[in-house]
Amino acid sequence: MNKKKGTLYIVPTPIGNLTDITYRAISVLKKIDIIAAENINHTKILIRNYKIIKNIISVNKHNERTKSKKLIIQLQEGKNIALVSNAGTPTINDPGYYLINYCHQFEIKIVPLPGPCAAITALSASGLSNNKFCYEGFIPSKNIIRKKLLNNLKKETRTIIFYETSNRIISSMRDITQELGADRQIVLAKELTKKWELIQRNTSINILSWLENNKCNIRGEITIITSGFQEKKINILPKTVLNALQILQSKLSLKEAIHITAKLYKISKNLLYSHITSKK
Ligand code: SAM
């Protein structure tokens, strides 16, 4: 008779605050046979907190391929395994890709648990359009590649999520400001769920100048969210209005010309102003 295969559980863990773990995650960690963890010591601290003692095997970006093959044998022999990373949801810029793909290949049951993820936590607080978004992972560290990526994202209309480290945040924000525009809405989410949690929303130029003025205080884990590209609205005004504005402008100050045109045609002064500035 064929031996019953085991199950691979994907178990998200806290992104800072140790209490951000679900009842189900704890109960899974208690009942499985092996924990496949990105960092053994890191995971030991977490499970000790919940009085869990387990056999932990390291699966990190350096040994992922070979370790995953060994874990598949254990799963085929009926062992249940929980995949965890150092923080958040495994495989989201964390190890797990190979193990999960082998599970599909060898028809091993995969049970993913919902739980913490920095990208989604930051997005939920961003106040930016959340119905459509894209996740770009870490911003490339090399200048040329970073600029190229940002340039390619210039016309992306969905909200964009990036991961970044504190030592590169200023150079990345400089490039974001340059490539996506100084008036792009940015949400800087730092140290989410931790003591020094900070969520700032402003234009990219203002976030950049805040970062430049607070260099020494920028430490910790950072998620950046940018608003998507929006076509600038072009004001369409009737020709008669535009002609009147033009004639008045040639004889009067801009302020007076706008004032009279607005009165004559019952049009808002702001609309006339933005028409003129959009022409410059
Ligand atoms: N798997 C994780 C998840 O589900 O969010 C992401 C792991 S990735 C290696 C680590 C990056 O996630 C950090 O460099 C940072 O950009 C982001 N991050 C992780 N924890 C965070 C936190 N508490 N606050 C803000 N960003 C965080």
From TrEMBL:
| Gene3D superfamilies with a match to the protein in the record | Cobalt-precorrin-4 Transmethylase, Domain 1, Methyltransferase, Cobalt-precorrin-4 Transmethylase, Domain 2
Ranges for domain Tetrapyrrole methylase come to 7-203
Q: Where in the cell is it found?
A: Cytoplasm
Q: PROSITE patterns in the record, alphabetically?
A: RSMI
Q: Which domain of life is it from?
A: Bacteria
Q: What class of enzyme is it?
A: transferase
Q: Which family does it belong to?
A: Belongs to the methyltransferase superfamily. RsmI family.
Which HAMAP family does the annotation name? 16SrRNA_methyltr_I
Q: What is this protein called?
A: Ribosomal RNA small subunit methyltransferase I
| Native source organism of the sequence | Buchnera aphidicola subsp. Melaphis rhois
Organism phylogeny: Bacteria, Pseudomonadati, Pseudomonadota, Gammaproteobacteria, Enterobacterales
